[in-house]
């Protein structure tokens, strides 16, 4: 998946370009879900790993759990001896970004990054990575690492969301797309339109989705 590349680009709100907390610290989050194998994992509160999505994948493949947060996730990752690179959110980019109340703001309104893949046999997977909302409270967990809210994949489709995490969590937006496909039998465009227009109450959100038919 290309999520690692996007995390390494400071233009996006993930990995190196992550939005910071109100205390000016970084708490990155990521999740990944293999809809075919029914395997998933998520991490939150990541501060020392360059690619949170790689840590999330490690949790999925090498731990017995599906969600590890803060130091627990990082201790696990470093302890596996797997190839993880150290890094924090955009130390270099922070210096070159405009500041507001001592906190960096971006001119580009960067967004969370996500990726949905469908292979030639219709197997779907999805991944999402974010720094979260700018100036969020420390300890705040958004939608991106929550399976079914910001990320979802099953045998029908893969979905990755961006936007206001609290609104996305309230409606379990990513899972909603799959549920509409499953129970209403709509095509992908119809179901995404339905979910965004009818299900999202307040707040802003967008998503990418791919169906097993591509
Ligand atoms: N959805 C993310 C969050 O609320 C933010 C974003 O999409 O940029 O944590």
Polypeptide structure, described:
The protein is of the alpha+beta class and 214 residues long. The chain has a single domain (2-90, 106-211), classed as (Glycosyl)asparaginase (Glutamine Phosphoribosylpyrophosphate, subunit 1, domain 1), CATH 3.60.20.30. 29% of the residues lie in helices and 24% in strands. The chain is built from seven helices and ten strands. It has a five-stranded mixed beta sheet. Strands 8-9-10 form a three-stranded antiparallel beta sheet. It has a two-stranded antiparallel sheet with strand order 4-5. Strand 2, helix 2 (52-62) and strand 3 (67-69) form a beta-alpha-beta unit. Mean pLDDT is 88; it is low at 91-96 and 103-108.
Mean pLDDT: 88
CATH class term: Alpha Beta
Question: What is CATH's topology name?
Answer: Glutamine Phosphoribosylpyrophosphate, subunit 1, domain 1
Bound heterogens, unique: aspartic acid
Number of domains: 1
| Percent of residues in helices | 25-40%
Helix/strand order, N-terminal first = HEEHEHHEEEEEEHHHE
Biggest β-sheet: strands ordered side by side in the sheet:
3-2-1-7-6
Largest sheet: 5 strands, mixed
CATH architecture: 4-Layer Sandwich
How large, in whole angstroms, is the Cα Rg? 16 Å
Pfam family, one: Asparaginase_2
Protein name: beta-aspartyl-peptidase
Binding site for substrate: 140-143, 162-165
Enzyme class: hydrolase
């Amino acid at each position: 998946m290309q999520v690692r590349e996007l995390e390494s680009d400071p233009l996006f709100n993930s990995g190196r370009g992550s939005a910071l907390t109100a205390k000016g610290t970084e708490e990155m989050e990521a999740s990944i879900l293999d809809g075919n194998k029914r395997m998933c994992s998520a991490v939150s509160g990541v501060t020392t790993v360059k690619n949170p999505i790689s840590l999330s994948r490690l949790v999925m493949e090498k731990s017995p759990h599906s969600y590890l947060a803060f130091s627990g996730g990082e201790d696990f990752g470093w302890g596996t001896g797997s190839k993880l690179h150290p890094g924090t959110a955009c130390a270099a980019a922070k210096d070159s970004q405009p500041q507001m109340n001592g906190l960096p703001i971006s001119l580009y309104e960067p967004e969370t990054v996500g990726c949905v893949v469908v292979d030639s046999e219709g197997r779907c997977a999805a991944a999402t990575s974010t720094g979260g909302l700018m100036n969020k409270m420390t300890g705040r967990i958004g939608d991106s690492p929550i399976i079914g809210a910001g990320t979802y994949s099953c045998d029908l489709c893969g979905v990755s969301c961006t936007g206001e995490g609290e609104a996305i969590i309230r409606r379990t937006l990513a899972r909603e797309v799959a549920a509409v496909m499953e129970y209403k039998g709509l095509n992908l465009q119809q179901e995404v339109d339905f979910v965004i227009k009818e299900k999202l109450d307040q707040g802003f959100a967008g998503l990418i989705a791919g169906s097993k038919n591509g």
